[in-house]
Amino acid sequence: MGYGQVMSLHKLSRADRQRLMRFVCSFAWADLEVKKTERALVQKMMNRLHLDDDERAMVKEWLRVPPRAEDVDPQTIPHAQRKLFLDAAREMISADGEIDPEEKESLSLLEQLLS
User: Fold this and answer.
1) Residue 2 clears pLDDT 60, i.e. is over it
2) CA 20 to 30 Å from 99, out of 17, 31, 89, 93?
3) How many domains does the chain have?
4) Phi/psi class of residue 57: alpha, beta or left (left: φ > 0; alpha: ψ in -120 to 50)?
């Protein structure tokens, strides 16, 4: 994420930070496996977002068990934050250096739903 996006991250409400991390974690699970590099990226994102202990515990649980599909609804993403969410999803699926067909399909679907 570029500098401008880091600035945007600081403006997110608690609910928006949690929504973003649910989406990020759901993309980490897109290929049915959360790799070490993806976990490292999630950790970096948690640091960038300055998540508190409760929020960090939720995110760690989403890395253990994927977020429920009904909790990852693209229609709940505020219009002004859609690019931020897409960029975070792109960063997650490329974190391990390879983009699996499932990850590519999930990203494509998210792009379609947000356009």
Assistant:
1) no
2) 17
3) 1
4) alpha
